[in-house]
User: What shape does this take?
Amino acid sequence: ELIISDDCSKDETQSIIKKYAETNKSLIKPLYRDKNIGSMANFIDTFSYCQGKYIALCEGDDYWTDPLKLQKQVDFLEANEDYGLVHTNFKIHNVNTGKTIINNGFYIDGQPFDEYLIGQFHIATLTTCFRKDLLEKIDTSYLKQNFKMGDYPMWLEIMRISKVKYLTDITANYNQRDESASHSKDPRKQILFLKNIWEIRLFFSEKYNRKNLTTIIKRYLYYYNSLLLILERKYIKSFSFFLKARLLKREYILPYFKLLIKEYTKRNYVSILKIVLSDLNYYLKLEKNDTKH
Assistant: This one.
């Protein structure tokens, strides 16, 4: 079955869905909302209409490119009962530049809950296929937290009770735009998105008593709060938060902090995002090298 849930679109989406649904009423099952309930609520509620043994997701204007995607994933799950979810590699198409690249992220395989909780591992929603009965087994208390994303918390809960398999096959295309929920040229929006990821991590580390990880996660939340305060020009308070983060040795804190303020003063927001996403790692590497010597 193909379930299409439209969250009260204001464009011509519903008419397009109806057109396709007429071609195969037994296969295509459209859901139309009377009012917009939000992406998170729409995401979760749609699962209640699924009747199959497995669920595969494809949102927005993303699309699958491998006609055997589902077959490969279902075959693996049928042969390996201890695995509950299969995800794959994919391509990223930048809608604004027209460039397409193969994703080179870090992928999760097996059941390393702690590593997925705090690491840079990635499960791309548009590539997933998982057992429907897992939704009846996982704890869904995270839904009350009103997180801005529904997939990451769900993958964490699934990984608590089941293994995850990564296939190297490229099976889908992700359309990346300059402005979306996860990508923005606005530094405040980007920082808030990253902060939300760490808020999710804090919730799960406390929920499952990962005290060592909780300490690290709280440091990063201090860091992102510091960045937000820089954007508000509250430099003294921002610096105090940065000190609380304790991510760098003191000799590296001031140069890094000055760099952020310098770029903000120039209104070089793209540079600020690069610093946020990349340059902290540079300073962390400097610390590691100092430790080795």
In short: The longest helix spans residues 269-292. The chain has eleven helices and ten strands.
